[in-house]
Amino acid sequence: MDFSNFTEAFQLLADPMVFLFLICGVLLGVIVGALPGLSATLAVALLIPFTFDLSLMPALAMLIGVYAGAVYGGSVPAILFRTPGTPASAATVFDGYALTQKGESQRALSVAAFFAMVGGLIGTVILILLAPQIANIALRFGPPEYCALALFGLSMIVAVSGESLLKSAGVAIFGLLLATVGMDPITGYPRLLFGSVSLMEGIPFIPALIGLFALAEVFRSIGNTEQIAQRSSGKFAWPMRSDMIRGSWTGIRSGLIGTGVGSTPGSGSDIAAFMAYGIAKQRAKPGDTFGHGDIKGIAAPEAAKTGSISGSMVPLLSLGIPGDAVTAVLIGAFILHGIQPGPLLFEQHGPLAYSILATVLVAHIVVFLVAILGTRFLVRIVACDRKLLLASITILALLGAYALRNNIVDVWVAISFGVLGYILEHQQYPVAPLLLALILGPMAEENFRRSLILSDGSYLVFLTHPISAIILTLSVLSLIFSVIRRQKPRNG
């Protein structure tokens, strides 16, 4: 690595206009991410036209700021109202909202902000040092590896969700069945549409997400309007030292996981967050209380999803391949401003390439500072009259579901999944496997069938590819370990 390029990159970033647009991007991203139904991809895509008249660095700083801000912003409603603003924040609900119910929403928000920064910084440092090597590993992923990765994600969340492995597996299988609704990914044949053209692309994920968490919580809270007193720790919600220490190793490990998952083209921050949460819960110690407000349960998904931001930049900058939907949009922004991402970027535009890395690094720090300064005011929302709060959540949830495609069918999908989520939780079935099955189901099916096509129908293709064989072995081991862990209390 040429440190002279990196020094020059920070000089480019020191331009007050660049820093100003970065802050504006972060603020806008946090606001967009906090609104259910709006994603980081949408925020970046909508902002690109406004960067046409800007020079390159201010434009890129603003877009990267929006990206980082939106990924964190989704955790704000997830923690305060059990309403994930973005799919990547769904895993933060389990322990973040549990702390809010205990009156510690400020603590949850500060912990989320801190470990989001930790994961982002870890991912960016790895990006700076090891981008070419990680890109070479990511290029080795084909259909068998992607299928194995999807199954590994499902196995992890099934293994750690709920007290009953059978219930978790049953919910996951049901989710996989729902994921088959829509057009066949290989033949294009319509399946299980029940006469609705709106389901051609499958069950819309964001309305389903809104229903499973936001509306299900509203249904559960009907008739219970008791206020939850929120404790405040002062003017600024700086995380407690004990919380930072308790979640430190989980945050570091999850940041590494997020970077690895994010650097794999086609994966995203939502997969990284659930995978990190699953691994953290799998490695839980006797004193851990995952699902009931454990700091580690917030540290894991937050560090992983911001680590995946940096990870997604690896294939973007090194190979010119988008790591996820947001970086696919960013490629368009690069090209519009006369820059072609790829192997020659670091050779032909060294200072510019490293200035982008420096921008990502600083963006994570700015997000943390904005979050810490704003947490005290956000907590006041929870103190509002609970009837008004539930009504507002319902309206925002339904508007978020409708705004995705301006389609009333999405509203009914959200309501249906709200009822489904309420019933599942009332009967003590976990909803996390269903949610992750909707995310990973299409990925698993498409790559499973492509693998069989490439191997002329031989299932051995998953074992003859070393990476997929290792991932599948880890999937089986996680389930076996889960069975052993659940039987220990009975034998004890």
List the helices and strands and how they pair.
Layout lengths: L2 H11 L2 H19 L5 H8 L8 H18 L1 H7 L11 H9 L3 H35 L3 H18 L4 H14 L3 E2 L6 E2 L13 H17 L19 H6 L1 H15 L6 H14 L12 H25 L5 H12 L8 H4 L1 H33 L3 H18 L4 H19 L5 H23 L6 H4 L1 H26 L1
Antiparallel strand pairs: 1-2
Helix pairs in contact: 1-17, 2-4, 2-17, 3-4, 3-15, 4-14, 4-15, 4-17, 5-6, 5-7, 6-7, 6-14, 7-12, 7-14, 7-17, 8-9, 8-13, 8-20, 8-22, 9-20, 10-18, 10-19, 12-13, 12-14, 13-14, 18-19
What's a concise summary of this model?
It contains 22 helices and two strands. By secondary structure, it is mainly alpha-helical.
Report on the structure:
The chain has 492 residues and is mainly α. The chain has one domain. The protein has 22 helices and two strands. The protein has helices spanning 3-13, 16-34, 40-47, 56-73, 75-81, 93-101, 105-139, 143-160, 165-178, 205-221, 241-246, 248-262, 269-282, 295-319, 325-336, 345-348, 350-382, 386-403, 408-426, 432-454, 461-464, 466-491, and strands at 182-183, 190-191. A two-stranded antiparallel ribbon has the order 1-2. A hairpin with a 6-residue loop joins strand 1 and strand 2. Helix 3 (40-47) packs antiparallel against helix 4 and helix 12 (248-262) packs parallel to helix 14 (295-319). The radius of gyration is 22 Å and the shape is globular. The mean pLDDT is 80.
